[in-house]
Structures are given as structure tokens and as C-alpha cells.
Amino acid sequence: MTHASYFTHKDVLVDLSTSENTVIIGGGQAAAQACASLRQFGYDGQITLIGDEPALPYQRPPLSKAYMKGDMDEARLYFKPEEWYRDNKVDLILNTRATSIDRSAREVALENGTRRPYDALILATGSRPRTLPVPGADLDHVYDLRDLADVEQIRPHMVEGRKLVIVGAGYIGLEAAAVARQLGLEVTVLEMADRVLARVTSPVMSEFYEAEHRAQGVNILTGARLERLTGDGSVQTAELADGTSLPADLVLVGIGILPNDDLAKAAGLACPNGIMTDRDARTNDPRIFAAGDCAARPLVHYGRQGRLESVHNAIEQGKLAAAAIMGKPRPMEDCPWFWSDQYDLKLQIAGLSQDYDQVVLRGDPKDRKFAAFYLRGGKLISVDAVNSAPEFLASKRLIMAGASLAPDTLSDTSLTMKEIAAAAA
Amino acid sequence: MAKITYIDHTGEERTLEAKNGETVMETAIKNSIPGIDADCGGACACATCHVYVDEAFMEKVGQPEDMEQSMLDFAENVQPNSRLSCQISVSDDLDGLRVTTPESQH
């Protein structure tokens, strides 16, 4: 592993556990976790959470799933009720953007002109959607899907019979497509690559999800290049490079996210692609930590540095930062994991499959219950498990153990995952 | 509404008023009950909200569905009264429910 050599501050670490002020910039999963973990680990100083959205810190995953569908109240999205912050002496400054970090004065400046001193600072600034680089992207009824505010705007349009065009067939786009079909919209998904989920999974999974969405009535166009959106005030048409013209009452854009590392960059912190951290979520300033989507962390099970856009990562780095501030032993670094709900399909992903050299199927995709294991040099590095919790949970452990598995064993459904895992141990 | 008592691994009890329709997990998380992580927020995706249900309530709480059962098969220290608390919805029927939380979810 090469990532540790980057940091040179190990000899100047300061004890932050009895410090007076910890400031957290951000109001998402990593920020909420850092707050809760700091108090759980006994931090006694002032905690200030600065978030640029008006709502209490909330869970994002349901925004493209149950909450978008209308199956969930807003209050159920909140990690903690407002009283919790009061009872735990967390000063919530919501609806307010942090504008700069002064590392020598150890202060954060806010857009309202005030400044907040810090002894320890946690950057949990998250990510922002990539913007659609085509004419007409600024028309009305063209939305990103990132924040509660986006979903509030989108939901009134999620009405039976409306025509929805989704740009981007990643997890967010496909989850939104599933919700929209269930609500009776006419849905087209545009994907530039030659298959759905091209950036995140293997062709066999892409093929399965593409077939599933088609069977549910979604019009999926791969290799599709969106040329422009047109309309009179509101969007009316999506025009493709091949001349196809699609009517649209509503356009959702899900073409990936970018780390919010501008504040960190301006403060001189190392930000190759996201804010660089060590295993304790510490940046190259020993008083500043970064957690969640915005951070580029050591991926210890994979021997490289990278960003993870996931709940698991936000929670884990929130905990790592809190533990480092409190001088506690480093919490467990779990194998990265993700999930996606589409229709009645629960996809659970363990590990990172990017560099696989072999895919092994277990079960038959036709049964809508199967798993794709990814191996590299015989070693299990990742699994995509569809309605297959045992495959997911067993693989998490096997990946962390660095286990090598024979393809014939993995695909043998006469063996349970428990038996396979026990034999590999 | 239902009163739910959470007993942590040291035996300490905390009794809370739970709202109907919320889950036993959500009530715990909002009140910082120790021993429940619930990383996935209730999507039955992570198996980190494992609890032991008091035997007297096993029938009222009901049986886990397939997905939950297969998640439980891989949780640590599973017992016959193990459940994922995100899959137990609060109702008046569950008034007086007692659940024990494990020392750790990993």
C-alpha cells in the first residue's frame, strides 16, 4: 500500500479529545454520524453543525425510492429529531453555507458574515450532481435528484400518464425509473454507454436490469446521445443526436456526482479527486477531517485510494473521524457495500468489482434471485446479489478475509453460502 | 402508541413511547439506544439492527419474512428469538414489548 506515505504530520498530532470546539461542515449522513459518534465517544466540547439545506440532517437513499414514491413522511428521513441536537448540545446552523476556512486562525467563515472557531473540523460537504451539458438543461421541469428540495419539486409531476425522460442509467436513474413506472408514468431512460449501469457493474448485471426494466414497460435507449432539450419555458422535447425526438413533461438528470471539495482546495488541503484522507479520515492538516462522498480515502481491502459514494462510507468515515478526534482505537474498516431497490428486486453489493478478471454466476437470473461473484487472480473481490442476502453477507466476510474461491464451488447451489464460507476459512 | 423497553447487553433498561407505524429500529435510533446501528436506515439491506425479542411477544411480533430470515442467518449470535428491528412495525398490540440489544452488530 502506498497511501500512507503521503502524510507527513504524524509527529505533530495534537490531542483533540478535550478540545472546546468541533465544527462539522455538511448536514448529510457523514455529518450526522460524526455528531452522534463524538457524543457516544464522550466528546464534551461544543459541536457545531453547519448545513446549507433547511432540513434537519436526513437520509438520502429513500429520495429515489420509498420517499419519492410517497410511501414515507419527511420526518422519517431525519436521523434524529430536533430535540436530540438540543439535548446533546449540538448547535445546528442550517440553511447556511460555509464560505471559507482560515487554517491559521482556525476559523470557518459563513455566508451570513459570522465566523466559527474550531479546534477540530470535519468536512462532510458531500457531492453535487454533474450538470447536463446540453442546451435546454435550464428549462423548467428539468431536475437533478439529489436533495429533499429536488424531490419536493419532482413529486407533483409524478402523475400517471405523464412522460418522463431520465438521462443516465446509473442506480439513481434506474431507481427513479422503477418508482415512476409504479406510479404509472411513461418512462424513457437515455444512456450514452452501450449498456445500463456500465460504470458500476458487469455486462451480465446490465443485461438483467435492462431486461427487467423493459419488461416493466420502460423504454431504455442505450448508445443514446442527448443533443438538446427544447420547450417554451418548460421542457417539452428531448432531441437525440440520431434525430429521435421524445416528448417529455419532466426530465430527471442522473449522470453522476462530483465531490464538493472547493472549500478544502481553497484552504490548501490536498484534493486529487475529493479531499485526501488517511485511514483515520484525517486530511493533511491534523485538525481537519473529511468524511463521506467528498473524501478520497484509503480503500484498505483494495490497496488504493478512492472515493466511495455510499451510506456505508459516510457512516464509517464519520465514525473514524470521531474516533480519531477522541483518541479511540480505529473502528473497523468494513468491506465497501451498497444496495439498490428497484421494483421487488433488492440488489446488495459487497466490495468493488472494477478490476475483476472473472465473473461467476450463482443461480439463474431468470429466477430473479441470483448472484454474480467477481474474482481477481482467484480472489473474491466483489459480489452483486439480487434477492440473495446470504450471498451478499457471506461475501462481505470472504472479501475482508482475502479469500480465494473456486468458481465451481461458488456456482454450486447444492452448497449453502454458509458451507462455502466455512470451507474457505 | 406502545411502550417498548430496550435492554442493553449490560442489562440496563430504557423504556420509550413508540409511535404506531414506526419501526422498533426507528424508535431506538431516534433515542440513541445503544447496540443498534441500522446503517441502511431500514431497507433490510445490512443486518445491523439485530435484537432479541422477549419470548412472551414472539407470537405478536410474528415471523420474519424470507429476506429478513436469510439476513439473520448471517448475523452474529443468532437465537430463535432474533429479529431485525427495522422489520418490526409498532402497533398498539406491541405495548409492553421488551427487546434486548446485542453488545455489537459486527
Mean pLDDT across all amino acids of chain B: 92
In the CATH hierarchy, the third-tier topology of the largest domain in chain A is known as FAD/NAD(P)-binding domain
Class based on secondary structure composition and strand pairing of chain A: alpha/beta
Write the CATH architecture name of chain B. Answer: Roll
Note the gap between the termini of chain A: 24 Å
Helicity of chain B, in percent?
10-25%
Count of individual helical segments of chain B? 3
Structural class of chain B: alpha+beta
Note the gap between the termini of chain B.
31 Å
- Structural domains of chain A: how many: 3
- Lateral strand order in the biggest sheet of chain A: 3-2-1-7-19
Radius of gyration of chain A from the CA trace?
Answer: 23 Å
Tell me the major beta sheet of chain B. Answer: 5 strands, mixed
Assess the beta-strand content of chain A as a share of residues.
25-35%
Give the uncertain stretches of chain B in residue-range form: none
Output mean pLDDT of chain A: 95
Strand content of chain B: 15-25%
Which chains make the largest contact?
A: A-B, 30 and 21 residues
SSE layout and pairings?
The complex is a heterodimer of chains A (425) and B (106).
Chain A: E1 21-25, H1 29-40, E2 46-50, H2 66-69, H3 82-87, E3 90-93, E4 98-102, E5 107-110, E6 115-117, E7 120-123, E8 127-129, E9 142-144, H4 148-154, E10 163-167, H5 171-182, E11 186-190, H6 203-215, E12 219-221, E13 226-230, E14 237-240, E15 245-247, E16 250-253, E17 257-259, H7 262-266, E18 275-276, E19 288-290, E20 295-299, E21 304-306, H8 311-326, E22 337-342, E23 345-351, E24 358-362, E25 370-376, E26 379-386, H9 389-400, H10 407-411, H11 417-424
Parallel strand pairs in A: 1-2, 1-7, 2-3, 7-19, 9-16, 10-11, 10-16, 11-12, 18-20
Antiparallel strand pairs in A: 4-5, 5-6, 8-17, 13-14, 14-15, 20-21, 22-23, 23-26, 24-25, 25-26
Helix pairs in contact in A: 1-8, 9-11
Chain B: E1 2-7, E2 13-18, H1 24-30, E3 50-53, H2 58-61, H3 66-72, E4 82-84, E5 97-100
Parallel strand pairs in B: 1-5
Antiparallel strand pairs in B: 1-2, 3-4, 3-5
